[in-house]
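Weekly modeling sync, notes
Attendees: AB, CL, MP (scribe)

Item 1: holo prediction request
CL wants a bound-state model with protoporphyrin IX containing FE before deciding which constructs to order. AB pointed out that an apo prediction alone won't tell us much about the pocket. Agreed to run with the ligand included and paste results into these notes for async review.

Input as submitted:
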Amino acid sequence: MYSTLLSLHSTVAYAALGVLTLAVINAFLGLTSKSLFKSKDRSISLVALMVCHIQLAIGLILYFVTPKLEAWSTLGMKVMADSTLRTVLVEHPFTNILALVCITIGWSKHKKEESNNGKFKKIALFYAIGLVLLLAMIPYKQWLA
Ligand code: HEM
Ligand code: HEM
């Protein structure tokens, strides 16, 4: 269960970061070229939202099955003194949930916008903040090891 979820989470991560990056670039291009917000723009933003939500769901389950969770009972607050444990048990989950809230707000706000420019603006801004937050807290060392 744990190893399946971990490999799923580390594989879906490429898709989530990849499609989110594409959605951000697409929104900025649409914004600067003053294009119409077409169905392809909606699709790329929606696929990015969905893949990120799937990753969120996997991450939430992973949190409760990872053997690293036991560190909370053995070490208590000393978890914070270990940089690997602090990243995986605190900083990564907390920041990524925040990033997902941001991305989801961007999606909801774009729906309420009437203008093409307004739609691109909401996606560009909120998805970009989400992407930066995600990239800031990936446990790169163990991911790419
Ligand atoms: C822990 C799991 C999840 C949580 C907490 C969550 C939460 C949310 C929230 C709060 C919204 C915003 C609704 C709105 O105001 O428009 C949303 C929208 C959405 N979620 Fe998730 N979600 C989760 C998992 C998933 C999964 C697994 C998928 C599968 C693809 C998914 C697909 C979507 C889609 C497509 C929307 C947009 C719906 C629309 O535009 O109305 N979510 N989700
Ligand atoms: C789009 C959002 C996310 C991305 C891109 C992402 C990406 C990653 C990556 C690349 C790893 C390293 C995997 C490896 O070592 O092979 C990881 C580990 C982990 N993630 Fe996420 N993650 C996201 C969201 C979340 C969320 C929301 C949670 C929990 C609430 C979470 C919980 C975890 C945990 C607990 C681990 C470490 C598991 C272990 O080492 O035993 N992730 N994540």
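Recorded for review: Helices lie at 2-32, 39-65, 71-75, 83-112, 116-136, 140-143.
Action items: CL to compare against the apo run; MP to circulate these notes.
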